[in-house]
Structure prediction request, 490 residues.
Amino acid sequence: MNFTHPFLDPDGDKLREECGIFGVIGTSDAAAMTALGLHALQHRGQEAVGIVSLDGQEFYSHRGIGHVAQVFSSNQIFDGLPGSVASGHVRYSTTGGSGLRNIQPLFADLAAGGFSIAHNGNISNAMHLKKELVSKGSIFQSTSDTEVIIHLIATSRFPKLLDRFVDALRMVEGAYSLICMTPKRMVACRDPLGIRPLVMGRIGDAVIFASETVALDVVGAEFVREVEPGEIVEVRTDGRITSHRPFGDPAPRPCIFEHVYFSRPDSLMGGRSVYDVRKKIGVELAKEAPAEADLVIPVPDSGVPAAIGYAQQSGIPFELGIIRSHYVGRTFIQPSDGARHADVKRKHNANRAIIEGKRIVLIDDSIVRGTTSMKIVQMMRDAGAAEVHMRIASPPTGHSCFYGVDTPERSKLLAAQMDVPDMAEFIKADSLAFVSIDGLYRAVGESGRNAACPTHCDACFSGEYPTSLTDHAERDGDSGQLSLPVGKVA
Prediction:
C-alpha cells in the first residue's frame, strides 16, 4: 500500500523518506521473503528496488527502476536469487541521484571476500571522505554516499572484517541504518544516535532485520526488539548472534518525523503504535488550536489518524470530505502540466454533498512548499465550503534535513520564509495553525521537549542538528567542521 502523499505534487511539495531496508538470514526462500518485506516498505521509497542473495560463497543480485512488484514480477527472477541469506532496499534518490548504478544493495569483492551493503540514511561527510579516498587512489562506481563505507572498509588496516567495519563507521557522520552481508554473516547496525530506525525479528530459525515492524508482520515474523542506537548485531550463518557496542552510550536521537509521516501507521516505533501517536498529535492540535467549525476533514491518507484525534477531542464530526481514487497513476510522471493538473482532479474529488455550506477544519501532516495546501484549500472552496481552517499535525518545517530525508533547500521551505499568518494568506485559508513542538513531544509520551537534551532529532523543526555537518559547512565555505551539538544552521 502506498502511504506517500496522494497529490505527489510535481513541485516536490512533500517530505520523502529516502529508503527502506530488509534482510533475512536462515531461510530457504530468503530472496522471496525479502521482496515481500520490501513490498511492505514500499512507502519509504518508490523509485527503485534491489535484492542481493547469498548461496554459500556466491552472491547474486537483481535490481531495477520501479516498484517491488514491477521489478520482481516472476518466479524466474527468484530462481536467479538462490540462497538462505538475502537483503534488499527500496529507495528514493537523495545523495547520489537516480540510476541503476546507485540502486542498492551495493556489492563489492573485498580482500576478505564478497560484501554487500544496504543503507537507510545519509552520511553528512560523504563528499569530504570521498575526496580523501579518491586522492589516495580509490575509484568509485556510483555517486551514492553509501559507497564511501565500502571504500573505508577496503582501505582499513585492521585484519578482521568486523574490525574494519567498525573502523569505517568511526569515520562517518550523519545517519545510517545498515544491513550488510558477507559469506559468513549478516551484520545490522544503527548510527550511535539511532536517527534512522531498524528492528529485529524472527520466523522459525531465521533472523530478520527491517526498517519497520510492519515488514515483520507481512512476512509472518515475530518482533524481537529494536536494534539499539550504536549497536552492531552480527548473525552468523550457523545461527550464532552476537551484539557489539563499539561507540559508547550516547543519548539517542531518533527522527521524530517517523511518528508524524514516514512510518506506516500500522508500525511500532520506539515501542509505540504510530497510529496511536498520530491520533494523539490530533488531540494536542485540537487543544492548542481549536476552531469553530462544522466538520473535521483529513487530507488522505496521511492526515486521517490526526484528524480522528482532533475530531474526538473537539467534538466536531469527522467526515471524509476528500475522496481518493486508487486507480490513477502518480501525477509527477505525466508529460505536461495540463495532464498533471487533470490527473490530480481524477485522483481526488471533493465530497461536495457534505462540504457545501460547511465550516471545515482540514488536517494534514505537514506543509513544505505550500503549493499542495493551496490546491487543497481551493478544492474545498470550489466545493462550496463556507470557511476553510487548516491545521497541521507537525510544527512548521523551516529547516532542511541532512539525514536522509528528501527535503527542498531551505529557501524553498514556506516556513523558512513566512510567519504563520503570512502562510495562511499564501495558501488562502481562513486560519492556519501547527501543533507546537512541545505538543508533538507530548504525543510521543513525554511531558514536552527538553531543550537542553532533546530525546529526538527534530532539526527540521528546531534547526538544532545533533551531529556535525561537514559537507554542508564546506559547501558554504566554512573550513571547519560544525561542532557537537551543532545548534541552528542558517
In short: The radius of gyration is 23 Å.
